[in-house]
Amino acid sequence: MHQVSTIATISTPLGVGAIGIVRMTGPEAISICAQVFRSASGSPLDRAATHSLCHGAVQDPASGNLVDEVLVGIMRAPRTYTREDIVEVNCHGGPVVQQKVLSLFLERGARLASPGEFTRRAFLNGRIDLAQAESVVQIISAKTEAGLRVALAQLDGSLSGEIGELRQAILLEMAAMEADIDFSDEDIEELDRDQTGERLEQIRSRLEELIDSAFVGRVLSQGVRTAIVGKPNVGKSSLLNSLLMRERAIVTEIPGTTRDTIEEIINVKGIPLQLIDTAGLRPATDEVEQVGVERSRRAMREADLILCLFDGSEPEDDHDRALLTSLPKDRAIFVINKCDRFRGQSPRFNRGLLPSEPVIISALTRQGLNQLKEKITGAVLGGSLPPLEGPIVTHERHRLLLEGARDSLGRACQGLRVGLGEELIAEELRAALAALGEITGEEIADDLLETIFREFCIGK
Ligand code: GDP
């Protein structure tokens, strides 16, 4: 039989902190740790009860030197995250200490864990399904409370439960259809194609609802890609700053992305806006201005939402007009800034040029900022956050598979109507089942698993 290895890694972020955790899972986890641990009470680690903490010290057996005073958490299989034995060494949070503890484990037979390998084991050992495993990444990278709630619900299995029910329903139809194919010459009741079609249609519309939830899911988990555009000096950075002022700015480093970007997120009434770096947000010199314009265009193409800014204290000019012609207007919110300069008066900028009613603000005095935020939430989610009940699809991978399943069912329904052979219809049902099975991981290829778990950070 395949020998399961014991794996270890530092689970807390790199850098200095109050504590750091070195984590190990696998059949040898407890015995490897016992070789370097001296307990304060004198009782050996391998006799420690499950889910207990042991106080003591890690010592390098080769030199006899003390490495650190630690607390060791012992969790025995199967009631653990990976369903294997797990050891968590809480040491002091310096990188040298954690690295030393880790290398003592590696010298004694543990292997360095790759990103997501703990969660991968939880999946392979049947503790969680794939959709749940993927939600772990989201919990870690959640940018707002709402995003976190959706991710937690997915970890809890709400999406998996729904997918399971839909698969079961398709399976029943398929079984009836196959029985009809196999025993068509015997005396059993013939398949009622109309009724089968109706039931499949119901499943299809439930899939459609799940697919519709994906937009909200993406907004909550990844944020609305937002560009602030406008000619130089209209107040783009000032607006950014005043939006950042009250709402806490969260700067996240997303590991695993090709660019390793640092992205800036503003939380606007629970909706995370992910700001796309546009020209003009940073001071640009003349010769790079052209590059800047191109960047601005690209940002507008990539954006879900565009905040298009004008200076209300000045009449419009060619720059403003050029911007208005190049703008995708359906995704734009128009903002007239510097209203403190024309207090009570109409702005000098001709608002008649704008295709929809602008929001009038002062980035400097924060006047109108609340209306702007309301306009933003309205534009994104039609008013406010929808009730976060029921499963919400947050992964692009899931959405594509749901669409595949929906299309297969659509073809099956169509086939039933036009008198297509049952073998061909059963084939479509099988494809729908396979697609849904890929979401929860019942039917999934190894290389795909590899890709999915690569998104994880080390130690999870
Ligand atoms: P950007 O080039 O579009 O990013 O513009 P900035 O945010 O750097 O602003 C340009 C100038 O306009 C700065 O001197 C700001 O202080 C000023 N400014 C920005 N917003 C306002 C506002 O609402 N009222 C007034 N009076 N000045 C503003």
In words, what does this structure look like?
The structure is a single chain. The model is unreliable at 246-262 and 279-288 (pLDDT under 50). The longest helix is centred in the middle third of the chain and has 30 residues, at 193-222. The protein is built from 14 helices and 14 strands. It is an alpha/beta fold. α4 (130-141) runs antiparallel to α5, α5 packs across α7 (193-222) and α7 runs antiparallel to α12 (396-418). Bound molecules: guanosine-5'-diphosphate. Residues 230, 232-238, 280, 337-338, 340-341, 362-364 line the site of guanosine-5'-diphosphate.
- Biggest sheet strand line-up: 3-4-5-6-2-1-7
Ligand list: guanosine-5'-diphosphate
Stretches with pLDDT under 50, minimum 5 residues: 246-262, 279-288
Note the overall shape.
flat
Helix content: 40-55%
End-to-end separation? 26 Å
| Mean pLDDT over all positions | 85
What fraction strand? 15-25%
Largest sheet: 7 strands, mixed
Order of helices and strands: EEHEEEEHEHHHHHEHEEEHEHEEHHHH
Instruction: Provide the gyration radius in Å.
Output: 29 Å
Tally of individual helices: 14
Structural class: alpha/beta
* Count of extended strands: 14
Question: What layout of secondary structure does this protein have?
Answer:
Elements: E1 7-10, E2 17-25, H1 29-34, E3 37-39, E4 52-59, E5 66-75, E6 86-93, H2 95-107, E7 111-112, H3 117-124, H4 130-141, H5 145-155, H6 158-182, H7 193-222, E8 224-229, H8 236-246, E9 250-253, E10 262-268, E11 271-275, H9 289-302, E12 305-311, H10 318-326, E13 332-337, E14 359-360, H11 369-381, H12 396-418, H13 422-440, H14 446-454
Parallel strand pairs: 1-7, 8-11, 8-12, 12-13, 13-14
Antiparallel strand pairs: 1-2, 2-6, 3-4, 4-5, 5-6, 9-10, 10-11
Helix pairs in contact: 4-5, 5-7, 6-7, 6-13, 7-12, 12-13
Guanosine-5'-diphosphate is lined by residues 230, 232-238, 280, 337-338, 340-341, 362-364.
